[in-house]
Inverse folding.
């Protein structure tokens, strides 16, 4: 560490500090023309696959990194057990897989907006009923909204424990990639969360 600190000091100490504040993009929190955003786009794939993707543009969520509300919602949406969306769609022979979530970086989450997407891999039969598939997804999201998270802290704690285990037992990454990741974290998180802010869940706040 002493050697690394010496190198960093030698290499970066000559870079001048211009004293400018961190750029703020708070005035750009409505990047999408919402009425125009309510559209269905049909795209012909290169390979033979049927996929339905539903995308929502949300207010920026990065300030809630200690709560990770979109991670919580994606956990429920992506659940595959009894009572899940995918379980229902499989019984109808309409879907093979379902994924929902937010990448928590870059295009999907930044200081102006957050994207939340649900992608369903359809069967040939499901493709014929993709309107019904979309309806089922919206029904499930509406049910989650109406039920609320107040009685679901057990689920949040389960997610918290799983993420903590993955963090503590993760494989060693390439040092260059790790440094790059930490530098990005320094722009978004409090100092004490530089190492953990992008992975761990810290606070349960149902209102968020």
């Amino acid at each position: 560490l002493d050697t690394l600190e010496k190198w960093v000091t030698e290499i970066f100490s000559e870079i001048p500090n211009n004293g400018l504040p961190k750029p703020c993009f708070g005035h750009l929190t409505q990047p999408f023309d919402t009425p125009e955003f309510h559209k269905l786009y049909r795209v012909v794939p290169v390979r033979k696959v049927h996929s339905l993707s539903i995308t929502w543009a949300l207010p920026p969520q990065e300030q809630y990194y200690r709560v990770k509300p979109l991670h919580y919602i994606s956990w429920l949406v992506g659940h595959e057990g009894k009572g899940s969306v995918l379980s229902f769609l499989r019984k109808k022979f309409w879907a093979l897989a379902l994924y929902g979530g937010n990448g928590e970086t870059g295009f999907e989450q930044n200081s102006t907006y957050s994207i939340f997407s649900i992608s369903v891999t359809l069967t040939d039969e499901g493709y014929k009923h993709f309107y019904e598939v979309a309806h089922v997804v919206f029904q499930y999201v509406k049910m989650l909204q109406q039920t609320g998270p107040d009685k679901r802290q057990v689920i949040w704690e389960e997610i918290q424990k799983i993420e903590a285990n993955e963090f503590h037992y993760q494989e060693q990454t390439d040092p260059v990639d790790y440094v790059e990741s930490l530098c990005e974290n320094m722009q978004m998180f409090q100092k004490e969360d530089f190492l953990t802010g992008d992975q761990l869940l810290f606070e349960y706040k149902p209102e968020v």
Helices lie at 2-12, 34-37, 69-77, 85-91, 124-128, 130-147, 153-168, 175-188.
